[in-house]
Every structure is written in structure tokens, then in C-alpha cells.
Specification:
Structural class: alpha+beta
Strand order of the largest sheet: 3-4-6-5
Number of strands: 6
Oligomer: single chain
Strand content: 15-25%
Largest sheet: 4 strands, antiparallel
Number of helices: 5
Length: about 180
């Protein structure tokens, strides 16, 4: 049981890191565009499947579409993704200057990251709750003794504490990144 809980908690951590990666920090990063979907011949495709996203320096992004006819669609997708970025194209590539974040915007982003971290802490606690429920059912069914139940519940709590501490550490690093 504890192994299943551990695997589910690991997935939550990976998902949390991915969600935080999409939060803009004032530095150029390809992960900012992970949620951008481009209308590609009638279907919505991730930006990285229709173009190359490169980071020439800390404050700019260059997007090179594989199909040059998609340039206006990519621009439209970036604008509708509400990233606060203004793309400009020269017919071949799209260039985006990453503006420095205002103090107010930084606070909003920290708040957004904090809310995300709380969501994922709750997800970890839900995994613990499911694990405890499963252990109680197994004890009632006579599969494990009361001592084993206590031991497993304690180890599940330690696992939960470890993963919540990891979420806190990841959040603190992201907060420092946003505020710097």
C-alpha cells in the first residue's frame, strides 16, 4: 500500500513542478509556452509540435515555425493564451521580448504559485486519506493486525510529511525566482 501512495505522491510532485514551470518569472523560458495551443489545420496542437522555441538570451524568445504559413496562427495563439507577451514576426520567425515583471505582477504570480502549492499539498493529503481508508478496510477484513495498521499508518504519515516538505521547498525556490 505505501508503495502505491508513494507513486501517487511522486506523480503529484511532478505535476506540481510542471504547473509551476508555466508561471512566468521575468526570464525567458520555453516552458512558458507549454499551454499554448495552435490551430493547425483544424486541430489544436501544442506550440512545440509546430515550431521550435529557442531562448537566445534571458529576455527574449525566438519561435521558428516548421511551416511558415502558421506564423499568424502562432501569433494569435500566443496572444489568446494571455501570457502578457507581445509577439512580432518578420515573416520567418516570431520574436518575443520578455518584459521585466512589475512588483504588483510579481506579487500576483507568487500568490498564484502559493495557491498551486496548497492545491498539491491537499492532493498529497488526499492520497494519505485514501491510503488510511484502505488500511482500515484491510484490518477489518483481517488481512492485517492492529499493530500492522498502526505501523503502516505511521509510515504513511511520514511519507506524507516528506512530500509536503518537498512541495514547500519547490514553492520557496519558485517564490525566490519570481521575486528576484
Amino acid at each position: 500500500m505505501a508503495f502505491d501512495a508513494s507513486a501517487r505522491m511522486e506523480k503529484s510532485i511532478a505535476s506540481f513542478k510542471g504547473a509551476l514551470g508555466a508561471i512566468r518569472t521575468g526570464r525567458a523560458s520555453a516552458s512558458i509556452f507549454d499551454k499554448v495551443r495552435v490551430d493547425y489545420y483544424g486541430s489544436k496542437s501544442p506550440l512545440n509540435q509546430v515550431a521550435t522555441v529557442s531562448i537566445p538570451d534571458a529576455r527574449s524568445v525566438v519561435i521558428s515555425p516548421f511551416d511558415k504559413s502558421l506564423i499568424t496562427e502562432i501569433e494569435k495563439a500566443i496572444l489568446t493564451a494571455d501570457l502578457g507577451l507581445n509577439p512580432s514576426n518578420d515573416g520567418k520567425v516570431i520574436r518575443i521580448a520578455i518584459p521585466p515583471l512589475t512588483a504588483e505582477r510579481r506579487k500576483e504570480l507568487v500568490k498564484q504559485a502559493k495557491n498551486l502549492s496548497e492545491e498539491y499539498r491537499t492532493a498529497i493529503r488526499n492520497v494519505r486519506r485514501d491510503g488510511n481508508d484502505d488500511l482500515k478496510k484491510r484490518q477489518k477484513a483481517g488481512e492485517i493486525t492492529e499493530d500492522e495498521l498502526k505501523k503502516e499508518t505511521d509510515s504513511l504519515q511520514k511519507l506524507t510529511d516528506k512530500f509536503i516538505a518537498e512541495i514547500n521547498t519547490i514553492f520557496e525556490a519558485k517564490e525566490k525566482e519570481i521575486l528576484s
